[in-house]
Amino acid sequence: MDSVGTNRPPLRPVAAAATRRSALLRPPSHLGLGNRFAETKLGIASGCGGGGGYFGKVQGFDALRSTTTKVQSGKAGRSVTKEMGHTSSGNEVPLKYSSGKAFPLGVSQVDDGLNFAIFSQHASSVTLCLNFPERGNQDDVDIVEFALDRQKNKTGDIWHVSVEGLPASGVLYGYRINGPQGWQQGHRFDDSVILLDPYAKLVYGRKHFAVEKEKPSQLFGTYDFDSSPFDWGDNYKLPNLPETDLVIYEMNVRAFTADESSRLAPAIRGSYLGVIDKIPHLLELGVNAVELLPVFEFDELELKRFPNPRDHMVNTWGYSTINFFAPMSRYASAGGGPVAASKELKQMVKAFHNSGIEVILDVVYNHTNEADDVNPYMTSFRGIDNKVYYMLDLNNSAQLLNFSGCDLHGMLLGFRVVLSFVTYGLSLAMVFIQASLVTKQYMWLLTLYHGP
């Protein structure tokens, strides 16, 4: 076992902006799903690569001042914190880890603790990074890194580990992933970066919308198994209005109430709760359905990463996806963070439905925050398995493919990834429980290739 104490902040690559594109799903015959799709199911939909040594790093980035404890895979089943005399953030229970299980992806509760599972078909090594914020200051953390054993902690293309002794909420987590460095073959691995789990249900990052002093914030997945299930109420029901009768209002949650002319208290302007206060106005207009622009985690400061003609702008629409399953945390009232965002989003959906208003989600799978190979910004998909998450032109230096016609440097998530995200989201009802989900083409594939 190698115990290391060091000031080692995660390094943040610089990246470019993305622009809006329309969704396009391609039939399976174009992508060669074959038997592998049926065998691996969700395994096909995870991970994206980085570029070992290629990306420029910002060495001055100090969003996290951390002490790192590295745990080698040979210590499975033993008390790693007790052996090293290490405790994290007042947690007196020694951490132990075992092989874990492949499903479900993300983090889940198991009998002996919490299970972490992530897909990466091309990875050669995966390290789980657990981050314990100190009380009162979430910029100071202790980091424990578990190096996974490819023999004990890997099933097919899914890497997994179970950790005993973790709190049921509040821990931040991510992954360091390494693999082939073949740029021409489409790989972009870089294990100097802590990557966000694509299946995280909550994302910890900046607390306030478009606050530039919070711009260099490290993104982590987090979880909350302490809170009680959301109470939808005994009399709750969906409006179930005929599509032909819908009067749809397209809405951006923040822009709808962010201005002081909304006459709302500052704490709830531009938030899920602020929208609730304006439901009577929508009813007066005769609206019976709202289509919400992206309400999952996105990067509103994507245009400010490096000097460019649009660096004075903020992406308020939300088409710069960081994670498809976590509610936009900066839509929580008063900077409440990811747990509050999850609860308040459900409160908003419940209020809409109780008022007879349908809720439609705008979910666009050909937008992410990671930009292109010219100015890459790696936070998740690229560094986990670029060749799986993105559609690449292997005849052109593995450049990202774009079929939307509105961005020559765009990316389009691979069909199998999109299918997995959609089916996974439907099976869990996502974090956006009870809201409707609309995609644009090939819905019949959900029947042919259902899963997870």
3D architecture notes:
With 452 residues, the chain is α+β, with helices and mostly antiparallel strands. It has helices at 34-40, 80-84, 253-257, 272-277, 279-285, 338-354, 381-389, 415-428, 445-448; strands spanning 65-71, 96-98, 106-110, 113-119, 125-134, 137-147, 154-155, 158-164, 169-178, 202-204, 220-224, 248-251, 289-292, 358-362, 392-393, 399-400, 436-438. It folds into 2 domains: 46-224, Immunoglobulins (Immunoglobulin-like, Sandwich), CATH 2.60.40; 243-448, Alpha-Beta Barrel (TIM Barrel). The protein has 9 helices and 17 strands. It is globular. The two termini are 36 Å apart.
Summarize the structure.
This is Isoamylase-type starch debranching enzyme3. It comes from Zea mays (Maize). This protein is of the alpha+beta class.
Report, as a whole number of angstroms, the end-to-end distance.
Answer: 36 Å
Summarize the helix and strand pattern as letters: HEHEEEEEEEEEEEHHHEHEHEEHEH
The number of helical elements comes to 9
Q: Find the CATH superfamily of the largest domain.
A: Glycosidases
Into which percentage range does the β-strand content fall? Answer: 15-25%
Overall pLDDT confidence: 75
Rg of Cα set: 21 Å
Q: Major sheet: order of its strands?
A: 1-6-5-9-11-10
In CATH, the architecture of the largest domain is Alpha-Beta Barrel
Which term fits the overall shape? Answer: globular
Number of domains: 2
Main β-sheet, in a few words?
Answer: 6 strands, mixed
